[in-house]
Design goal:
Layout: H1 18-31, H2 36-49, H3 55-58, H4 63-71, H5 79-99, H6 102-125, H7 131-140, H8 146-155
Helix pairs in contact: 1-2, 1-5, 1-7, 5-6, 6-7
């Protein structure tokens, strides 16, 4: 998999289901502020600790599970990120109820308001995703973002 900073230059395979979208979102959240190599080393332990990013399992995490994650050396023990990932699992469940799937939700957003609406709504609806990390997440799931690609290219010339 390409490094997140290079996703705009690569064809990325679309996620196979909502759990895959959730895992990619969580990966971007954990990566924020870290060296990507650190995340790569820890990722198998993180996957295990988060039930391989099964949305329905993670959405049910309560305080005991969160505290266990904070004590788990296999995990990046950032409480704000851990809590955001649990909250995002709950948001993903809600989106699935409202739109059928996360992929369908993204398609609807793009149809209704284009790339800007897609970026703004995902940033607003999910925890620990800012404007930059939202773009990285959307690139990581194979969304075509011509405006973001142009912005990236112009800022790195």
């Amino acid at each position: 998999m390409p490094r997140p900073s290079d996703w705009h230059d690569h064809q990325v395979e679309k996620p196979k289901d909502d759990n895959d979208y959730f895992e990619r979102m969580s990966r971007v959240i954990f990566m924020s502020g870290l060296n990507w190599r650190t995340l790569e080393k820890k990722w198998p332990g993180i996957q295990e600790a988060f039930a391989h990013f099964n949305i329905d399992v993670v959405a049910e995490f309560q305080e005991p599970e969160i505290q266990a994650l904070m004590l788990n050396p296999a995990v990046i023990r950032n409480q704000a990120k851990i809590r955001a990932i649990v909250a995002n699992a709950q948001t993903m469940q809600q989106i699935a109820r409202e739109h059928g799937s996360f992929e369908h939700y993204l398609s609807e957003l793009k149809k209704l308001g284009g790339e800007d609406a897609l970026r703004d709504e995902v940033t607003k609806r999910f925890s620990f995703l800012g404007k930059g990390t939202t773009v990285i997440f959307l690139f990581s799931v194979g969304e075509e973002l011509p405006k973001a690609t142009k912005e990236w290219t112009e800022s790195h010339q």
